[in-house]
Amino acid sequence: MATPAQSRLPTQEHLTDPCVHCGFCLSTCASYRILGTETDSPRGRIHFLKAVEAGELNLAAVADHFDSCLGCYACVTACPSGVRYDQLIAQVRPRLNDLQVRSPWQRLLRQALFALLPYPDRLRWLLAPLRCYGGSWLQTVARRSRLTRLFGPEISAMEALLPPLGPSSFQDGFPLLTPARAPRRARVGLVLGCVQRLFEPEVNAAVVRVLAANGVEVVIPPRQGCCGAVTDHQGETAQTRALAKDLVAAFAKVVGPGKSAGAEPLDAVLVAASGCGHTLKHYHRILERDTPWAEGGRPFAGGVRDVQEFLAELGLSAPLQPLADQPLRAVIHDPCHMIHGQGITAAPRQLLAAIPGLTLTSPLDAGVCCGSAGIYNILQPEIAAQLGEEKCEDLTATQAQLCVSANVGCTLQLQQGFQAAAKPLPVFHPAQLLDYSIRGVGLSRFSPGMASPVSTLGHASRSL
Ligand code: SF4
Ligand code: SF4
């Protein structure tokens, strides 16, 4: 057990000082909404930190109340005093990891997740036997009979999140360079993401097609790994730094004079998962102490854009067609690392509003986390499941016919939440809708749940 002196934080009074304990942040705090306890709210946690800073409290004694935080940053958006809780929790998490106060099972689970999730090749090896299971009758039976609960809530949560796995989950299959299919307007790099390339490979494929159709040349380094988002959000600083260095090196290896993707510099480095985008934009912080990597991290982070942010800035040039022969209504789920972490709200709306016949709406509690939060839905499955259920109800109440989410973790969480819903909504990435619209592919082909009132367009028979 750590002593009070060991658990003291480096003094960051300037971060906790602005809190005036007004409580405006409470209603948007996901953990407070479920647990209902001040100790699991931003205000309560800041109160703890002040006591820890003053040497009056042992951080280890309140570790659970920091582990219950989703790191969604909704409190940062809500706070009128400008409290940077995101910076506070980023400092606390590595300290919590050092204290070693979690249960042996939680430590083992975290180690296993950090050893697997950021490494697509390892994860593919592990998932290969599950390829026949995902989406099969066996999975349906296991879920309905709740057999998976015998293995404990965390394993059960992982099983519930597992989507059907196709051949594209097991290979990236992108060329190093995809040329623009219209007069060239930009040249970008693309980060594939580790979880996204396995569990939502069709999103990256859609992104590449949309970019190429809009006159963007796309460079995809073949040996790229994880950006470090999974470990960064959990305060695993050393592993995050190693992953960040590898990713910067993967791009430097193919772009530059005499390199395989050509000497011309990239206009931006894009990513289609908001959790990854948030971390990539912080490479200057992550690599600041790693000379000479700091030199590479700063311009890399400065060039990172979410795909939607980039396309909205560039402007769509490819003609768009309706997704159905009747008007469609889509509800936008704003991922926390998109709205609170990166401040992006207008870009997805601007892009999707350009699709003929598509109207957009937002849920009532748009700023509240869906419970995904990186690996939170595995580490804290009960709280995450309740948040997922509430979010799905909120999305369904809009009477929309489909849901849009630009983060793979949220998509998996929502798909799981909709499994038990009376009216499940299909969930798409904005890039998928743009891709279908550009190619004239009707939506009912992809989602049996949308058979009514949406019908397939006459031009929807084009092959993928
Ligand atoms: S973090 Fe901000 S909103 Fe929350 S109690 Fe403190 S001052 Fe108020
Ligand atoms: S980051 Fe999210 S869960 Fe954590 S205190 Fe802030 S609002 Fe609550």
UniProtKB/TrEMBL annotation:
It is an enzyme of class 1 (oxidoreductase). Keywords: 4Fe-4S, Electron transport, Iron, Iron-sulfur, Metal-binding, Repeat, Transport. It catalyses: glycolate + A = glyoxylate + AH2; (R)-lactate + A = pyruvate + AH2. The keyword Acetylation does not apply. Its EC number is 1.1.99.14. Its cofactor is [4Fe-4S] cluster. The keyword NAD does not apply. This is Glycolate oxidase iron-sulfur subunit. It comes from Candidatus Synechococcus spongiarum LMB bulk15N.
